[in-house]
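Shipment paperwork, digital attachment
Item: protein structure file
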Amino acid sequence: MRSISLASRVTWALTGSVALFLLVICLLAYEAFARMEDNLVDDVLAGQVQALRHDLSIGEGAAALASRTGGDERIQAWVLPADVPPPEGDLFAQGAGAREVHRQGRTWHTWVETVAQGRLYVRYDATAHEDRVRAFGGILAGGAAAAIGCAWLLARLLARRAVAPIRIVSERLSSWSRGGADAPTARGDEAAQLLDAFNRIQDHVDRSMALERQFAANLSHELRTPLAALRSDVEMALLEAAPDSSLRARLQRMLAQVDAAADSLSGAVAMNSADPSRIEDVDLAGVLTEAWFAMQPAAQARGLTLLNRIPPGRSCRLDPYALLIVLRNLLRNAIEHAAPATLTISLEEPAILRLRDDGPGIPADRLARLQEWREGRADLKSDGRIGPAGLGLAIAQRVCDLQGWELTIASSHGGPSSWTEFRLTLPPGNPHGPNFVSASGQQDS
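Attachment content:
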């Protein structure tokens, strides 16, 4: 069946359905017309027999037969004694009653009846009527053949139109799987070719994902060694630094940055899969503090203040590396685009992290373009002070998609009440821990 195209199968299926319908209609019409002709001949014969029976009953005898049937060559009648053999050989051999007899290409309707004078034999030549029935059958057959031919042409046109989108998709997928080369015209079963094209695309995607995972693993392996060496040197330097010196604070900051880089490498590997083994109880306030620690100097330089309104002890079961990646990108976005401002991060039921700043906001046209972070666009220009934007949000959105989270953005631009708000919705049912604490128990950073 793979060698027969889908268009051909649809064409023949539709044509066969039409042919079957026409066959049934033509057979019914032919049978109805044949019965109508037979009934007409039987009525004519019955009328003649009744008239002959009446003439014989009043004693007109055999002379009446000639006067009754002489004007029509198709009907003939005989009255013979009962002991005399029937006329016309075996035409009346089956005894009394009406019969339809076919002899030598002709059709006869006969009648045999016992009368006072002996036996009445009547025959009617119905050959002309049968010829009309056969002619009608020929007309039906010719009309049906023409109708089937038209149905085949129409079915072929409809089948090609119906299958054309499948063929186009198959050709485009085949072209894509070949790296953009022109694909040959599809032949054979279009449905099978579409499945083959999807299989080739799936193999192509699987190979690409495998290469991506391999690249991330190789990159992580190549960078972990120098990061480990750098961390060891920083720890050794911390042992020699004075407890209250500015050098010790800078070294601690360097150590935090090294740990952040190592975590980013782990997160980059984690972005290629959602491994259930990495799911654990994560303290949301602690993760936010960890993400903020490495960015605090840049935030202070630009004038961004963080208010951590997440209640202590509030936790969720999720991937901590994934949450760190999302929070760092959102914090970096606030530092680069909202400062100077105050960024307030709170937790709403059931599990929604709300990041709201009182910065200048985002104009409506730029906000619409910013929604393109799903495509990883890096060419969304800012107001000229900071440079390109959008890539960090694309990374955050990518992580959210893999983890099943939802990230949305809203903003108001202009006036004294400008603001920008990100809402990170974690999977429902994950959060657990104590209820919200009062405002006096909230911590600021």
